[in-house]
């Protein structure tokens, strides 16, 4: 289910910095007529408006505030592509004293936030012909790293929801993409200690729109992601992406 974003309208959550900013810029480079910069503080998108003019439209959206998501969907009724990039990460092992609190925080944004965005924007995408929905997951969604166990758990859950969205939204002609970066050069990555091995956010932006254009479900943008994706490929093709109708045991 390939989709060309040229002359289309895109919405990117967390578009004011890091990967989200790179996604916004790549969307414009590929010919998107408008990009909604969906951010918690609309003033944070002012530099993007200064650079791109009215092609960038700031809109308030907070993954922890369901009302803001509903309001954004009621405003951005012309959206063809939604990229849910915003997310949070804590550094906590499964036996850390604050593991449960950290996991609750991460689940609320990374999983419940995804569901809220999908519920709000799926009808918009359907009304506009289907379009595409991309979710920023992680290599951590298929591999748990001990010092980031709660984050990995939240991303595994968001990946599971993304797989469900692939089946549900295909019925309305919406192509879903699950994006799995490794360490990326962002403030979040630096805070996690990934700065020495991190790669450019531009790789993620390119991978997202390539996957949308080519009709792929999985996107593995960077060096680490490519290694994980290659190892995971058989399972992805034969289990995750297989059109099976059986219910789980």
Written overview of the protein:
- The protein has eight helices and seven strands.
- The longest helix is centred in the middle third of the chain and has 29 residues, at 99-127.
- Strands 3-2-1-4-5-6-7 form a seven-stranded parallel sheet, with helices on both faces.
- The protein is globular, with a radius of gyration of 17 Å.
- 47% of the residues lie in helices and 13% in strands.
- It has a single domain (9-240), classed as Rossmann fold (3-Layer(aba) Sandwich), CATH 3.40.50.720.
- The two termini are 30 Å apart.
- The protein has 249 residues and is an alpha/beta fold.
- The mean pLDDT is 93.
The CATH architecture assignment turns out to be: 3-Layer(aba) Sandwich
Q: Can you count the beta strands? A: 7
Order of helices and strands: EHEHEHEHEHEHHEH
Please state the overall shape, judged from the principal axes of the Cα atoms: globular
Give the DSSP E fraction (strand runs of 2 or more residues): 5-15%
Percent helix range:
40-55%
The first-level CATH class name: Alpha Beta
The major sheet is characterized as: 7 strands, parallel
Regions with little confidence, pLDDT below 50 for 5+ residues: none
List keywords for this structure.
249 residues, alpha/beta, Rossmann fold, 7-stranded parallel β-sheet, 7 strands, globular
Secondary structure: elements and pairs:
Elements: E1 9-13, H1 18-29, E2 34-39, H2 46-52, E3 56-60, H3 66-75, E4 81-84, H4 99-127, E5 132-136, H5 149-170, E6 175-179, H6 187-191, H7 201-214, E7 218-219, H8 223-240
Helix pairs in contact: 1-7, 3-4, 4-5
Please provide a brief summary of the model:
This protein is of the alpha/beta class. It has helices spanning 18-29, 46-52, 66-75, 99-127, 149-170, 187-191, 201-214, 223-240, and strands at 9-13, 34-39, 56-60, 81-84, 132-136, 175-179, 218-219. The protein has a single domain (9-240), classed as NAD(P)-binding Rossmann-like Domain (Rossmann fold), CATH 3.40.50.
